[in-house]
């Protein structure tokens, strides 16, 4: 534990820079003491000797640094929440689509192709977003030519779910596009609308709207993250903090030399004060843009790996299962009332890498069961002659869809539970 802490400390740029500043001030204090010994340059009758004057300066600098650190931590925590919220929206959208596919009357090939295309596009969309916001700052060039070689290039460095199965024409268009997230999100909407038109998704329209709501919520979170990066803290406040900190670093060695004639303690106290103040200020500067590619920033690549693992679990055979009672409902009610069976049952499971998305799969189970009930009620309405509110039965002519990504593999059956080429792929 201690070894890992010290290794990470040695790699931290913040601690390195703060250590350099502290050692420089300590060396300056030693030089002042040596020069005073020969030339008497330290005047201990100056006003700076008064502790209240220097204490006021130190208090003002510490107040500015603490306020900046608090604001930076708030931005860092907000960025963490945005990434988690965006990931949750993609998982929810994919789970809804896969659950709706259980009621599809289309052939198995089309249903399975829809599942695999949606999962791959969601993985690609998340990578495009994370690749675009990683390394951005307020001074970044946001022109189309610059973004064409930053966002997409970084996106293909993330782990992707077998994008090699998507057609080459779509991938080529994505590489040449300056705004990849917008294009991939539009592809997802086109794939879903095309599936509604072809009868693959024959769920009532109000339920289908939840898919587009989740996609819209995820894109809204993405724009919030971009705003967090491109709108830095006010420059006058940052400049004031830096100027006062520089003044404090310059005066500290001289003030401590005025307080004592010892040659060791001025250097020690100068190092401690300057090191702490510089470390706090540089930490705040690092946290103000949490989407960078430094060691102290958010690990966006790990977030992509976790999302891919959960998306992969939605394509497994377990996601098509619907949990049922193994006893009668009377017995289940009796067990709920019993103190023994009502207590918390702790079970020990051997966790494997394939079980990371167990929570996502269980959510898909519940949604699958609920939509089967909805499908039965819809069929009952049709048999009684009641109007059917399915998207395909409205009689509204849908416009021609633009070209969207498709799988170029031969066919996908029920046995294809996981995507081929689960690792990262590049073009």
Automatic annotation (TrEMBL):
It holds the Pfam family Bestrophin_2. Residues 374-427 are annotated as: Disordered. It comes from the Eukaryota. It is found in: Membrane. Residues 376-386, 414-427 have a biased composition (Polar residues). The chain crosses the membrane at residues 14-35, 47-67, 268-284. The keyword Membrane applies. One of its GO terms (molecular function) is chloride channel activity. It is a multi-pass membrane protein. Keywords: Ion transport, Membrane, Transmembrane, Transmembrane helix, Transport. Coiled coil: none annotated. This is Bestrophin homolog.
């Amino acid at each position: 534990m201690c070894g890992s802490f010290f290794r990470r400390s040695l790699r931290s740029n913040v601690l390195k820079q703060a250590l350099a500043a502290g050692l420089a001030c300590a060396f300056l204090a030693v030089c002042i003491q040596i020069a005073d010994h020969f030339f008497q340059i330290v005047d201990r009758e100056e006003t700076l000797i008064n502790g209240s004057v220097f204490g006021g300066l130190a208090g003002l600098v510490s107040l500015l640094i603490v306020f900046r650190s608090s604001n930076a931590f708030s931005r860092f925590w907000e960025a963490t929440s945005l990434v988690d919220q965006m990931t949750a929206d993609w998982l929810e959208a994919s789970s809804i689509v896969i659950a709706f596919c259980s009621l599809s009357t289309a052939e198995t090939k089309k249903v399975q192709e829809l599942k695999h295309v949606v999962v791959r596009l969601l993985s690609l969309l998340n990578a495009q977003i994370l690749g675009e916001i990683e390394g951005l700052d307020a001074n970044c060039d946001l022109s189309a030519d610059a973004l064409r070689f930053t966002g997409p290039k970084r996106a293909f460095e993330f782990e992707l779910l077998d994008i090699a199965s998507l057609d080459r024409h779509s991938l080529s268009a994505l590489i040449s596009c300056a705004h990849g997230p917008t294009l991939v999100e539009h592809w997802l909407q086109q794939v879903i609308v095309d599936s509604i038109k072809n009868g693959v998704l024959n769920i009532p329209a109000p339920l289908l709207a939840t898919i587009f709501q989740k996609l819209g919520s995820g894109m809204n979170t993405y724009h919030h993250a971009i705003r967090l990066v491109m709108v830095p803290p006010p420059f006058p406040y940052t400049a004031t903090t830096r100027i006062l900190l520089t003044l404090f670093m310059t005066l500290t060695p001289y003030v401590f030399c005025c307080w004592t004639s010892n040659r060791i303690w001025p250097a020690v106290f100068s190092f401690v004060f300057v090191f702490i103040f510089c470390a706090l200020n540089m930490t705040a500067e690092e946290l103000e843009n949490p989407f960078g590619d430094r060691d102290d920033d958010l690990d966006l690549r790990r977030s992509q790996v976790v999302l891919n693992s959960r998306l992969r679990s939605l394509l497994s055979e377990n996601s098509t299962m619907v949990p049922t009672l193994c006893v009668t409902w009377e017995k289940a009610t009796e067990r709920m009332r019993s103190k023994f069976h009502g207590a918390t049952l702790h079970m020990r499971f051997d966790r494997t890498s394939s079980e990371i998305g167990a929570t996502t799969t269980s959510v898909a189970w519940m949604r699958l069961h609920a939509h089967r009930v909805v499908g039965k009620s819809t069929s009952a309405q049709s048999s009684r002659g009641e109007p059917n509110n399915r998207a395909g039965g409205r009689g509204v002519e849908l416009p021609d869809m633009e070209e969207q990504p498709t799988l170029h593999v031969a066919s996908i059956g029920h046995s294809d539970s996981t995507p081929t080429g689960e690792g990262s792929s590049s073009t």
